[in-house]
Amino acid sequence: MSALCPPPSPAVAKTEISLNGESPLLAATFAYWDNILGPRVRHIWAPKTEQVLLSDGEITFLANHTLNGEILRNAESGAIDVKFFVLAEKRVIIVSLIFDGNWNGDRSTYGLSIILPQSELGFYLPLHRVCVDRLTHIIRKGRIWMHKERQEHFQKIVLEGTERMEDQGQSIIPMLTGEVIPVMELLSSMKSHSVPEEIDISDTVLNDDDIGDSCHEGFLLNAISSHLQTCGCSVVVGSSAEKVNKIVRTLCLFLTPSERKCSRLCRNESSFKYESGLFVQGLLKDATGSFVLPFRQVMYAPYPTTHIDVDVNTVKQMPPCHEHIYNQRRYMRSELTAFWRANSDEEMSQDHIIHTDESFTPDLNVFQDILHRDTLVKAFLDQIFHLKPGLSLRSTFLAQFLLVLHRKALTLIKYIEDDTQKGKKPFKSLRSLKTDLDLTAEGDLNIIMALAEKIKPGLHSFIFGRPFYTSVQERDMLMTF
Amino acid sequence: MISAPDVVAFTREEELEDELCSEPPLPEEYSVPLFPFASHGANPWAKVAGSKFTRDFILISEFSEQVGPQPLLTIPDDAKVSGTFDLNYFSLRIMSVDYQASFVGHPPGSAYPKLNFVEDSKVVLGDSKEGAFAYVHHLTLYDLEARGFVRPFCMAYISADEHKIMQQFQELSAEFSKASECLKTGNRKAFANELEKKLKDLDYTRTVLHNETEIQKKANDKGYYTTQAIEKANELASVEKSIIEHQDLLKQIRSYPYRKLKESEFHPYEPEAALDPAETGCDQDLSTSDQAEPSPTHLYSHAPSYTPKLIKAKSAKCFDKKLKTLEELCDIYFFTQTLDQLHQIERTFRGDVCYLLTDQISRALLKQQTVTNFLFEDVSFLDEKPPEKQYRGCQELSQDAVDRKCSEESPAPKVVISLGSYKSSVESVPIKMEQELEDTNEPKMSESVTFEPQENLDYLDADIKGSISSGESIEVLGTEKSTAGLPKSESQGSLPVSPSPQAGRSRVGSRRTVSEDSIEVLSTCPSESLIPEDFKASYPSAINEEPYLDDDEDGGLRFTPRLNPGDADEREDLSQQESLAQVDSACCIGKESPNFLEAELGQKPCDEEGVVRIPPQPSRPAEQGLRGTFGGFASHDGISGGLLPCELDSRYPLGSRELSKSSLDEYSDSTSYMSSAASTCSDRTPSPAHPTCQGSERHKKKAGQNALRFIRQYPFAHPAIYSLLSGRTLVVLGEEENIVKKLVTALSIFVPNCGVYTKPVKHWVTSPLHVVDFQKWKLIGLQRTVSPAGVNVLHALSRYSRYISILDADSKTLRCPLYKGTVVSRLADHRTQIKRGSTYYMHVQSILTQLCSKAFLFTFCHHLHLPINEREPEESVAKRRMNFLKLQLGLANEDIKIVQYLAELLKLRYIQEPGQGGNPVLRFDYVPSFLYKI
């Protein structure tokens, strides 16, 4: 945060955002590459704070730097590239999403960036994917918006015979604001309520004297089993924050420390919003005893989700990864297509799209009962409560269980890698895999596959995708008759 | 509940499709691929295959003030690695940003140029079209001849996997920071040297100019200055200014360490390995610069003499001069270190990220289960200090250093715990009780082997003779010290063996009652009913042996622990522990205590019912109080069979007992004990399971391959593996060393570890086996020869054939107990479709981890081993244990024995002091053997 920065010129538009809690984010910027002037900053978003940690000049200086070198940009069509800076001299980290777009009649390069203090590196890294995924999606929509604006702009020029420079491209800012603020809120909430890296087992259900003490045995089994089957991604809802958080912590025991830092506890006073991309999050029901789960955001989570209601002890899960990704992509394409088809700003508003375009929910029944039972978690739960609580015995036993799961997952990846010659040939011997790796129970296979998916993305689609897509196509075909 | 606006929506895709057809479709560049992982032949491994380079590499680039960004070198330095990837273009891309915008040069208001110690920047960026993503570490080096004295460089780790870079960001950042710090340290050193030379040049030039000016002054008699004189004067002034500037620069560069050290994030580079100055050409001040640059005077002092030159007032034009190479910019030692570090980074991070991630996760999890790790895990990598280094270092130590090292690193002599009363859940009869607990740190070289009563042996002998082929077999393996309070037998005795051959001989001669014969006698027992009362199956009723003889009494030379000054309390502790050990501990822990670490050293970790109640701790601090030394060792320095330094370390495969035996081997030739001892020690080839190679991927792969071949070729693989998992020694017999070793390598992955690091595996033995071998080794490769010596080997083997399993590699037969469980069939299914050895190894690892988990549960499940009330009979407790194994752990038949054996090892290991490599229990089971043929 050096003071040796060139003064900004001219003044850059800025939106100040009031947040409830502490904001780890210093600022967000939107910059573009001007063919004459080089990198230019279009807009700054900054949390409203009493103490200014980064002046506008410094923010502009940093934002300009995110586009440095991008004149050499060599990207695939439509690519949104991520750049990540740790600038020790400036004591900041910057995450930039660089993309090409058409604006003001020119094709240019743009950068949407968020700036954090360097001290937040450890806090930010586990959340990197969440932030990038969300900003990437808003950029996808923003690009369409920019493109359409250009068309409208030309139409206006033709009709009115005048050109109003000041009007150009301004409307993308509100759209970006619509996602930058939630990202700031997310980081703020994570600052105060993220699950700690190390969890004391005594704060969890696994410290009970017996399996049924805190919650019903079957419920706990379903919750953990489904949680593992959905790649460790779960939403826990309930009326009591304490109860919710106990389950959240319990589920987080089955995550890696980094994934725990990407999980959030429930707030006592009022519920947080659902945030797409967190591993485990606790949410408090409202006075009516319900919690509204935004369908779109649940669909946009990188992994399928398990929905756990601690009040009524229900556990529901989304379809496995390959189906989830397929549904997600169809949903995204539908949404982007709807944006493309929209003719006015009003039509392009988020709510309008959702209300009017009925194709957004390919299948309402996204949360289903757990179909496949497993033996791994069942045996684990049957056994762990035999060990005396309050000592480190259960932690050790848990670590052994997790080690078994990870080793099985890696063996499974290696098995498929060998069998398919690193994906060159299709995988045809699922039955053999189940027998050879002792994963004959469908639930066991799901758990291990889910774990493998996290360390080898695309494994589900590779193994199960082809028959699934074929069946979907066949279904679609049949529906046309 | 799903939000209302979303709920309203429902699929009506056919209409949507119709509508879409009538409008221009969404351009693909604005859309997202429907099948991110399944289209265009994509697969989870495809991203790496799509790039122009074959594997990850490191690129060092510079932003040259003359030619702009340019690649300097790649690691590995192989053109095949970078392939057709355009390094020039990528260098341009990664160096095109000036992140270090700090001011260098003459700042406003400053009289002299100011060096700015710029901190490194780290950037992750990519080129999605080329499929190249990079972690880029920007750094600045100093060069007196460069513009602003700075030369911007960067080191980039380039990979085709974008996620890998971000997932490993912190690790990459930490490692590259070390490399950068090393390079910069060397650069500052070189820069300071360069400044000193320049100052000498300037000083010399000034002297010359001054002289010339003086001469001119003297020659000048006109009363005014000539143009030439004025020029000289200006030149002199310029040189003087330059001197001041350079002095200031030198002062600045010297002040660096102090300034930076104050900053919390500064981590000075500390080379891990001391390099021989003679080899590196590094001068003596290296050591000081290695240690966080404590003294700038030392750091920048430069020993070689330098002859100053006259320098011109005007420097060469920018483009006329040749810029220094990276090597020239840096002190050679540090440059080499940096390259080594970068090679290490490349080796660490290359390959599929899923293996890196799993490895990191596994390490973290293994650290949480130190209690069970010893069984099947390669725990050496979890230590801070690699065992390989320790081993090597140990060998290099002088004798003095041995003493020191042993006293520093080896745990102190530990509690003499009586394991004789250890309650086994396996039907085993310990027949040979020996005191193994004398820690190697207390290198007594004592061979406290005790043997069975001769009369018992005689009594049993009659029954066993000629019954070798009967179905009954007795497994005889090592035991620990017998229980106190049991009837003593006259002929039993501990047999401390002196390092002195004479003493040893006399000791052996006087105390030894039986060696292998004892086994022969025991083996005559056809059934349990014939075993004397003391021999009956559970440990509490195990054979008694003589109490451990006092050193002073037995006359044998023994090492005594040297207590540290002021360790009287600890000495007292020791005596307390010894006295405790004499009491029947019965593997019991009195009280459940979460504050185990605070417990007294002598506290028994088990209660009287044989239950381990104290939870496993992540690590127990090694006892530092008692330091073992070699009392009387100096007098035996001349022994040719003296101990290697490495052998004195308890963490190494050879325990004190074995060591003493090996030393005795050199001198004994008469006693049967000696000859038998020699049999195992004749082959000093280190086990492949030694830490030096145990952890190596190559070993794993090879073992996996061999194991896979074994289970496919040998239909009786299951009982063979069962033998190993249940603690029964398996001997692989064959003529050809190569074949036998391969089989041993294959089977070694199933052998539970009994010691700290080393698996009890002996790959190749050529001399007859002795009963002690079965205590040490659980898997032995034995040579079959037709020579007379070979007859002895076979004779010895047939003598013990009841207690061991024998795999004949030549005739492809196996003699061992029957196996009817399910665990091994999951572990070794001959129909498996697993194709590679490394995959099979991983599969075996995961199944063995499951077994460990079961054994852990069984060991530490308190209610299993305790009577519910005082009146509950032992049978009831045993029944409960059996039910638990069957119902809770789902074990059947022989699988139970596997878990029981592993649980025993866990318990034994747990109640032993840390760092004590106890051998497995020597025991025998009455289990019928079967002969399997292909």
Automatic annotation (TrEMBL), chain A:
One of its GO terms (molecular function) is guanyl-nucleotide exchange factor activity. InterPro entries: C9orf72. GO terms for cellular component: autophagosome; endosome. One of its GO terms (biological process) is endocytosis. It holds the Pfam family C9orf72-like. It comes from the Eukaryota. This is CI072 protein.
UniProtKB/TrEMBL annotation, chain B:
InterPro entries: FLCN/SMCR8_DENN (IPR037521), Folliculin/SMCR8_longin (IPR037520). The keyword Cytoplasm applies. Belongs to the SMCR8 family. This is Smith-Magenis syndrome chromosomal region candidate 8 protein. GO terms for molecular function: GTPase activator activity; guanyl-nucleotide exchange factor activity. Residues 48-907 form the UDENN FLCN/SMCR8-type domain. GO terms for biological process: autophagy. Its main location: cytoplasm. The lineage of its organism: Eukaryota, Metazoa, Chordata, Craniata, Vertebrata. It comes from the Eukaryota. Residues 285-294, 489-503 have a biased composition (Polar residues). Pfam families: Folliculin. It comes from Patagioenas fasciata monilis. Keywords: Autophagy, Cytoplasm, Guanine-nucleotide releasing factor. One of its GO terms (cellular component) is guanyl-nucleotide exchange factor complex. The gene is SMCR8.
